[in-house]
Design a protein that fits this description.
CATH topology of the largest domain: Rossmann fold
Low-confidence stretches: none
CATH superfamily of the largest domain: P-loop containing nucleotide triphosphate hydrolases
Number of domains: 2
CATH architecture of the largest domain: 3-Layer(aba) Sandwich
Largest sheet: 5 strands, parallel
Strand content: 5-15%
Distance between the termini: 62 Å
Shape: elongated
Length: about 325
């Protein structure tokens, strides 16, 4: 039987959770941990459909009435919750023993579970310890360590993994999404995604892609100004004076990633890059400064981020980098 055939990557989850569902030995509670956009919601939704699916060759089949309802978020027995306070969790608990509407099980999926306060987690803990037989919990979070140890001990932790660039590129192109974007521009978005397919899909529209490229170009120009100081560099930094504090920090964080690439290239010309889509462009910029100078700029940029976050003058902070 094929389990989670439509799930991209995350082979560890396909093996562990897939085999448990296939053998009807799945647990009553799972914690799905992973960075934003790495498929936590997709895993929970597919798992809910697989648990209730009537298919035999593959699960979820995506064709039976139950699958279609669950995968389109139209099933009354599969519910997503944003419950971070104790009163919200208590209201949810009151529904646990209600008869399921149309499926054999009820699936409760908690978004951003790491945001639940201690009282809310403790309120949920009792249900995790003694759940109704037909209820399965999925707690989705970016950091399982933010949950109480008592909560973690009563659920199996599954981790979604970032996808490699090739996998994301092939998926986006085969799906027909972002057909208006060139391969070069799509690769730039993928480079910024950190392996998050969700991020790439969010940024795939021409409008969002253009905004992202503009931000990357601003970071590149700022880094170039730092490495080639002079009147032109000061003029460009002056043009950034209208940036909001948030946009300034975002630009400086991109500069950090850029400088990281330049630093690692000094040690290994074949190193993986996190900012540059073009290795030649990165090597060219890296040649403008020695390792000591690049490291110094990296440290200065980190300090600048802290200063801007501490309400220092944006313009003065940027000029101090020259």
């Amino acid at each position: 039987m094929e389990i989670f055939g439509s799930l991209i990557g995350n082979e560890n989850i396909k093996r562990s959770l897939g085999s448990e569902i296939a053998s009807s030995k799945f647990l009553h509670a799972y914690i799905i941990e992973g960075k934003k956009g790495t498929g936590k919601h997709t895993v929970a939704r597919l798992a809910a459909a697989a648990i209730m699916c009537h298919g035999k060759e593959k699960v979820p089949c995506g064709e039976c009435d139950t699958c279609r309802k669950i995968l389109s978020d139209n099933c009354a027995d599969v519910k997503f919750f944003d419950a971070f306070k104790v009163d919200e969790v208590r209201k949810i608990k009151e529904t646990l023993y209600e008869t399921s509407t149309e499926c054999d099980y009820k699936v409760y999926i908690f978004n951003d579970a790491q945001k639940m306060n201690v009282k809310a987690q403790n309120a949920l803990l009792i249900s995790l310890e003694e759940p109704p037989e037909n209820v399965v919990f999925f707690l989705l979070c970016t950091d399982a360590n933010a949950l109480l140890e008592t909560v973690r001990s009563r659920a199996q932790i599954l981790r979604t993994e970032p996808l490699d660039k090739k996998t994301i590129f092939e998926y986006v192109r085969s799906s027909g999404i972002a057909s208006e974007l060139s391969d070069e521009r799509l690769n730039e978005i993928i480079l910024c995604s950190g392996g998050s397919l969700g991020y790439v899909l969010d940024m795939a529209s021409p409008q969002n892609a253009n905004a992202l490229i503009e931000k990357r170009q601003r970071a590149l120009k700022l880094a170039t100004a730092l490495l080639s100081p002079g009147a032109e560099g000061y003029s460009f930094i002056s043009s950034l004076s209208s940036l909001s504090r948030e946009d300034t920090v975002e630009t400086l964080l991109s500069v950090l990633t850029l400088l990281r690439d330049l630093i690692v290239l000094k040690k290994d010309r074949g190193a993986n890059l996190c900012f540059f889509a073009s290795r030649d462009e990165a090597l060219s910029l890296s040649s403008k400064a020695n390792l000591k100078k690049l490291t110094s700029f990296y440290d200065a940029t980190e300090r600048a981020i802290n200063d801007v976050n501490s309400n220092a003058s944006v313009m003065s902070t940027l000029v101090s980098l020259l």
